[in-house]
Amino acid sequence: MPKLRVQSFAISIDGYGAGPGQDLQNPLGVGGPELMEWFFQTRTWRRMHGHDDGETGVDNGIVEQGLAGIGAWILGRNMFGPVRGPWPDDSWKGWWGDEPPYHTPVFVLTHHPRAPLRMAGGTEFRFVTEGIHAALEQARAAAGGLDVRLGGGVSTIRQYLRAALIDELHLAIRPVLLGSGEHLFSGIDMRALGYECTNSIAGERATHVFLRKRA
């Protein structure tokens, strides 16, 4: 049965998945890039950006595993870009340039309709206004029997967690304190929702914790 997976989602040791003050200059919020330092050093990330170097240790191996078997993605609107409210035009095409790293259909949750956006490399952004269940149904249909990856951000993951729709959740816990921002688990009883920790692995720059919803 295809799964809905969260992979390589970084949080601080005080539980924040993004810093405060997200905007065009601070897409991860103030201090947010500290969460992703483990990822930026990997060979996988470097190759995404046209480089031949990068580390090949535990962190990189887990990144590679998280990209395998994915047929579609779901993103919250804030993960697609900083534009708020009705789309003023179609000029914003994401953070990633002409060829985003997804190479699959990507379903973007939004309250405001927008026509699908095809990009180089096989990525097509499809904008879903009917909510999280509709986005998941459409993503599963587009994934061709492969898993669907939920890319975030924090608010979107929280919505899917509250609905107990996420099958597997991989968190990369960084040894930093953000103090404020978007907290991943505030007010969410993961145990009551049926989740359990199945493994933890120490990487070079993050501790990787794997959660799974009990059958």
From TrEMBL:
Domain Bacterial bifunctional deaminase-reductase C-terminal: 8-200
Superkingdom assignment: Bacteria
Upper classification of the organism: Bacteria, Pseudomonadati, Pseudomonadota, Gammaproteobacteria, Lysobacterales
Protein's UniProt name: Dihydrofolate reductase family protein
Source organism of this protein record: Dokdonella soli
Pfam families registered for this protein in UniProt: RibD_C (PF01872)
Gene3D superfamilies: Dihydrofolate Reductase, subunit A
PANTHER family in alphabetical order: BIFUNCTIONAL DEAMINASE-REDUCTASE DOMAIN PROTEIN, DIHYDROFOLATE REDUCTASE FAMILY PROTEIN (AFU_ORTHOLOGUE AFUA_8G06820)
Transmembrane feature ranges: none
